[in-house]
């Protein structure tokens, strides 16, 4: 039943519900409905998973030069991602140390961040450089008023941040994935068109991982991706369950692969020319790699029923400003927008409504939904361990 949690500690019935998602795949069920709807369970996810793991916020080509910056809201925290004068990429709090005014929004290039409230000024490394009329305050210490920083790590050209200062680094757990992805040269790619931004009013897990399987191509994308042969409901797994990521190959329709409209990655081996590679780095970093581009889904959880989604594709740098590919790049962006707005988003919104039904209980997983099952076996133990350690 769709019970509402009144305490952050799970009762026995709820633990039994979660255990159903951890059974062997052939006997497993999905997460219980309350795992998508309950603010207390989301609070536990945020505390024990999202604030302890590496979350992707953008790409290095978003901040190619010193002074370049963009802003995001992540878990309700306003952040500035900036490349400082020293060339280092940092994740800074966007909140002024004086009276909590947000000091920057959007994206751009600057030499300093000036608080609109009282003109406190910070350089691009977060250091406070000016605080007018504070000489009379004995409590004020300029050196202690830098913008707080989160840990950052660059992996395959993606910028990751972590709220936990003691978290293990990201790269070592992804060595096997590095080998799989090496032919795509992801760190060298650049955005082929402006990103698509969406505010989603449902739980983040409905996209990552619940929409990150190829089974739903049969229904949601039957008239688009399936009909063109671009995607099929078939999945070949590229790595065993490992608690860090899922990677799969979705082969193009046999005998009818989509035509190359951009430029294939040089040196791509034949086995990677057969279709798409899909990757989910836990908890919520998603991207696809085709023989000619990579599509990145930036998922920024905000609350139990809200997350911000940015979708973009990246290509070889020489294609970005080549007039010969202008229309193709625009068409690729329009296709991504259509697939999400007209197909994926309505399906996920309808699922979110269905999960609030008192008549729905945990459904059985298909063997084709292994990506979900792998993620559930990552998420549930972390939440339970965190709750148990506080009891």
Explain how this protein is built:
- With 391 residues, the chain is an alpha+beta fold.
- It has two domains: 108 residues, Rieske Iron-sulfur Protein, CATH 2.102.10; 187 residues, Alpha-Beta Complex (Naphthalene 1,2-dioxygenase Alpha Subunit, Chain A, domain 1).
- Helix content is 23%, strand content 25%.
- The chain is built from eight helices and 18 strands.
- Strands 11, 12, 13, 14, 15, 16, 17 and 18 form an eight-stranded antiparallel sheet that branches. A seven-stranded antiparallel sheet has the order 1-10-9-4-3-2-5, with no helix packed on it. Strands 6-7-8 form a three-stranded antiparallel sheet, with no helix packed on it.
- A hairpin with a 5-residue loop joins strand 3 and strand 4.
- Helix 3 packs across helix 8.
- It is globular and about 75 Å long.
- The chain starts with 11 loop residues before the first helix and ends with a helix.
């Amino acid at each position: 039943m769709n019970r509402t949690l009144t305490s952050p500690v799970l009762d026995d019935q709820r633990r039994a519900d979660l255990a159903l998602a951890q059974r062997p795949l052939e006997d497993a069920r999905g997460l219980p409905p309350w795992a998508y709807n309950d603010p207390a369970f989301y609070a536990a996810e945020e505390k024990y998973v999202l604030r302890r793991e590496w979350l992707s916020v953008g790409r290095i080509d978003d901040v190619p030069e010193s002074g370049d910056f963009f802003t995001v809201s992540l878990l309700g925290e306003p952040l500035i991602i900036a490349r400082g004068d020293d060339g280092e990429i940092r994740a800074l709090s966007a909140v002024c140390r004086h009276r909590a005014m947000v000091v920057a929004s959007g994206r751009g290039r600057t030499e300093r961040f000036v608080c609109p409230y009282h003109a406190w000024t910070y350089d691009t490394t977060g250091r406070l450089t000016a605080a007018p009329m504070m000489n009379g305050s004995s409590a004020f210490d300029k050196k202690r008023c830098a913008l707080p920083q989160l840990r950052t790590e660059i992996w395959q050209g993606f910028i990751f941040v972590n709220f936990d200062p003691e978290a293990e680094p990201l790269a070592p757990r992804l060595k096997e994935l590095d080998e799989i992805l090496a032919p795509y040269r992801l760190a060298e790619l650049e955005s082929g068109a402006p990103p698509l931004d969406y505010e989603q009013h449902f739980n983040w897990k409905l996209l990552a991982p619940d929409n990150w399987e190829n089974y739903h191509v049969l229904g949601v994308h039957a008239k688009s991706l399936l009909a063109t042969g671009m995607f099929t409901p078939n999945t070949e797994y590229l790595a065993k369950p490992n608690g860090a990521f899922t990677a799969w190959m979705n082969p193009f329709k046999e005998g009818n692969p989509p035509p190359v409209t951009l430029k294939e990655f040089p040196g791509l081996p034949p086995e990677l020319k057969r279709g798409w590679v899909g990757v989910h780095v836990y908890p919520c970093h998603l991207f696809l790699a085709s023989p000619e581009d990579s599509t990145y889904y930036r998922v920024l959880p905000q609350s139990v029923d809200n997350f911000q989604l940015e979708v973009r594709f990246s290509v070889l740098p020489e294609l970005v400003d080549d007039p010969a590919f202008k229309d193709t790049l625009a068409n690729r962006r329009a296709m991504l927008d259509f697939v999400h707005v007209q197909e994926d988003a309505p399906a996920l919104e309808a699922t979110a409504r269905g999960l609030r039904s008192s008549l729905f209980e945990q459904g059985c997983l298909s063997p084709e939904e292994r990506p979900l099952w792998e993620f559930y076996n990552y998420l549930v133990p972390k939440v339970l361990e965190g709750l148990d350690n506080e009891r």
